Amino acid sequence: MAFVFETNPKCFSLISLVLFASIACNASKSPPPDPTPTSWPPQFHSILFINNSNSGVLQKADLWYDWPNGRNFNIIQHQLGKLVYDLEWNNGTSYYYTLDSNKECKVLHFPVGILTPNWLDGAKYLGQRYMDKFLCNVWEKVDFIWYYEDVVSKRPVSWTFFSGMTEHVMTFEVGKVLEDSKWQAPSYCFNNEGRKHHPLLQSLASAADFHVRFMRGVSDVSMAS
Q1: What gap in Å lies between CA 93 and CA 183, rounded to an integer?
Q2: Whole-model pTM?
Q3: Could you tell me the sign of the dihedral formed by the alpha carbons of 101, 204, 62, 97, in that order?
Q4: CB-neighbour burial class of residue 137 (10 A; exposed 0-12, middle 13-18, buried 19+)
Q5: What is d(CA 104, CA 98) in angstroms, rounded to the nearest whole number?
Q6: pLDDT tens-digit readout, 53-100
Q7: Using one digit for the tens of pLDDT, what is the confidence trace for 32-63?
Q8: Measured in whole angstroms, how far is the alpha carbon of residue 183 from the centre of its chain?
Q9: Other beta carbons within 10 Å of 75
Q10: Helix/strand/coil (H, E, C) string of the chain?
């Protein structure tokens, strides 16, 4: 037995019109814009674990970022080694010193100040990847730094320099500020007493000089764009 189905031409035309409209609507939708990195809060404290895949050097750092007061402080403990203070000011001056009996200090001058909160503006979006078990949005800035931000919380998780040094964010305390008395470089940074550099401090300052110049240059590019 054969079954014959009659199709109503008006019904068929209506279905075709709906399907066409749906396809056209989907085709006209532009892809969503790439996410942009969250600006740093004006003030925060963060504990970082730092690993250099090329040298194998391990460090722990307390980072105090204080944009309103134009200052940035990295207190860096080298594994089984020196505790080094890296104090940066927005006038381009940086002090690298120890507080031990050696009274070491090195002063550096840069053409630009500390990183701005929006220093990642203009970074190239690379998509989503896992870092330290967090799903992150990832950006790259001027082939120098790769920045990982947690998709959910928008907090930084890690950043990696082209040199192989990776900084892992262990804590991120927004609004926490170091007391003013801690921001004063020791007196021997301002006379010859502290200018007899220990070789290790000299090498640490040179390495920091290299990264800081690039980082501040990256920030300078953001401000100009």
Answers
A1: 13
A2: 0.79
A3: positive
A4: buried
A5: 6
A6: 888 889 999 999 999 999 999 999 999 988 999 999 999 999 999 999
A7: 899 999 999 999 999 999 998 888 889 999 99
A8: 22
A9: 18
A10: CCCCCCCCHHHHHHHHHHHHHHHHHHHHCCCCCCCCCCCCCCEEEEEEEEEECCCCCEEEEEEEEECCCCEEEEEEEECCCCEEEEEEECCCEEEEECCCCCCCEEEEECCCCCCCCCCCCCCEEEEEEEECCEEEEEEEECCCEEEEEECCCCCEEEEEECCCEEEEEEEEEECCCCCHHHHCCCHHHHCHHHCCCCHHHHHHHHHHHHHHHHHHHHHHHHHHC
Task: Give the CA dihedral 41, 153, 212, 176, nearest 10 degrees.
Answer: 40
**Contact yes or no for 130/136 (Cβ under 8 A):** yes
CA distance linking residue 44 with residue 149, whole number of Å: 16
> In angstroms, rounded to a whole number, what is the distance separating the alpha carbons of residues 65 and 70?
9
Instruction: Retrieve residue 75's tokens.
Output: 């207190």
